[in-house]
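In line with agreed milestones, the collection of sequences with tokenised folds has grown. One record among many is set out beneath this paragraph:
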Amino acid sequence: MTEKNECNPEGFADGAFYRKVIDQARDIILVVNPNGDILDANQAAVDAYGYSAAELCLLRIHDLRAPETRDIVESQMNRALQEGILFRTFHLRRSGERFSVEVSSRQVRFSDQEAIVSVIRDITAAVAVETALQESEEKFRLLVENIHTGVFIFDKQRFIYVNPPMYIITGYSEAELLAMNFWDIIHAGQRDLVRDRGLRRLEGIDEPSSYLMRVNRKDGETRWCEVTAMRQQWAGKAMVIGLLYDVTDRSKAEEMLAASEMRYRMLAENVGDVIWTINFERQFTYVSPSVTQQLGYAPQELLYCNILDIVHPEFHAVALENFKRMAADKPSSERGGVFELQLVRRDGSRLWAEISANLLRDDGGRLIGLLGVSRDIATRKQLQEELVRLATIDGMTGAINRNYFMELAGQEMERSLRHRHQLSLLFVDIDHFKEINDTYGHRAGDEMLNWFAGLVRETVRDYDILGRMGGDEFAVLLPETATDAALQIAERLRQTVENSRLAIDAGQAIAVTVSIGITSREDSDKTFEELLKKADVALYRAKNLQRNCVQVETLHYAADKALKQLKTTREA
């Protein structure tokens, strides 16, 4: 940290500064009375909706909502007055265009009236990514026992799965939770709303994916939690998978400023996101109090420190590139931006944050630095990463799934063709696998597949690519590997499996063998599909010969073998 002076920059304590902060923020900020009338809007709202500030103040928040969402506006307003909420919905531009938004609302009190302050972020791009991930055809196989966020899956009747943090948050054991339904743990005042949302989501109706709710613990204590939920197919049925994060401490209301002349200070300092300004030396000139909740620092600790001091070193280049681009004197449509990076909390832990920033000007229009908003997106990143994993990894064996294997194999094939590198493929099948299922049961069959995948990973090289192609068939792609080397790897794998045993219940052990087909890229092969067909032919021949053997299918290998046999015959 750089040494900082105790000072209060002139202009930063009055309403004009906070008006400037609000108007230059990239996020939409609206002030709405309990009846839904818009009292005030910043410049970002004018840009987003296409109305002038005066026109916006003649509208109600109801007028900005997409028609299918308007029936829940009043309930959202009432909840905002009571507790502050975070939810997703759709808004309309003046042109009629719909766009996805994430709304963070909080009740405030001005000198003579109650109001709701809403910070609204356009999340169209993020929703597009989430939608693409949600359309994955892979079944959910959730392996999240060691994260600190509660994870649950439920259908119309009960919880199907809960992870250990759910026991900590709710105070119930796993067995107790699995006998309950999701809304059984919700506070009575919100239970009907949460139940209706969950059922509508199961039916495929679009519902907000993130919102705050009160959870009743087994010991009677009430905890504030943020839930993120989505509909997914699980074992052929529609389920809801969700994340539950205890935000009780974060959700405790801060004391509202009453004086109307402090209105814009209140807006800047009472939203959940961290609002900050930096000069062109990248030193903080203002940090909102919410930085304490997000990063553990008091605002005054960061004044005149370099912003890179709280950015993880791995992301310094990302931050510098974006700050440099934002500081360039370009047309307003090319300035500012939103990007993601990892911040470092005071305790040294990392936090994924979304940074929204824009240029900051003084009263004379002179550029004096950047205005930014930092939003905690840790839960969103965890869910995205898990969805990506589920879309590419076979949940039973840990091998990559067929679709992702074909994608990587196609890339390796192109690289092999471009650089004329050698490329080989093993196609592997567990011999008599159906008999294992019939004799020992499907559970033993699942254990066998997982055990076998582990043997393959131990036998092949780190850079070889293992994929499960379906059932008991696996493929191993061997980059920069000729046929002879591939044959050695395949034979080593065959012997390893033959000499290994899978221990199951009651001290039993199962012995298995494998059949392996090998092929290598030849000049006539132009696509990976051609390579796969030849490997399949070799595997078919291995299974029809005697099983527990390795067969090769390439033109040059067959010719070389025939020449060697002819030479041996002549010498004899």
About this structure: The domain at 397-567 is CATH 3.30.70.270 (Alpha-Beta Plaits). Confidence is low (pLDDT under 50) at residues 1-13, 136-143, 251-264. The two ends are 83 Å apart (CA to CA). The CA atoms of residues 272 and 290 lie 6 Å apart.
